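This week, study the protein below.
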Amino acid sequence: MDVPAPRVPESLLEGWRPIEDRTERPFQAGPVAVSAHTIVYEDATRRQRIRESIGTNFDIVWRFFFASRLRVTPQVSTSRLLTRIVESNASTAFQRELHERGFESVTRAGKRTLEIRGTSARTTQFDAVVPIPDLGVDVAARATLTVCPEDGEYLLTGGAYPIEVIDEEDGGVLGRFLDPETDRTELLQLIRATS
């Protein structure tokens, strides 16, 4: 299961730290197998600022970014049908991953095409809610998954970020830590730059 790690430019990872680096075989049927190498990063700078401001008991991953390289063996050329199968399975797995990270009420919010190095990649957006029981509030979040076919492989990238504190007029104590426009821009930069 020799799948090289996806390459994320170090210049875009200032303030981020890797929290997972794993290789796995998510699918095998007879001689056909799909292997993956995934790296997950968190916004360590923001997490630390929130902990220092609110308290050490308040410790959740606010923003994360992931990159995963999928390799099908025996190698086949990417096709429209195979890409749809990869997109469907990746979407299901990503929603499961969001739930495991504490995101609730995850719903698909739309699809679009994103141009990445001359290739049309499919992007699915999700809306979700992150409950913060210690503060008695919920935070609305946006998540993005992109599937990009690449030379007989697939590059999956995406992540999530908070967009607003729900039911708090001024955003409460958390409001000053939210910057959804910048977070969205940075996520798209990471998605486009990963190879």
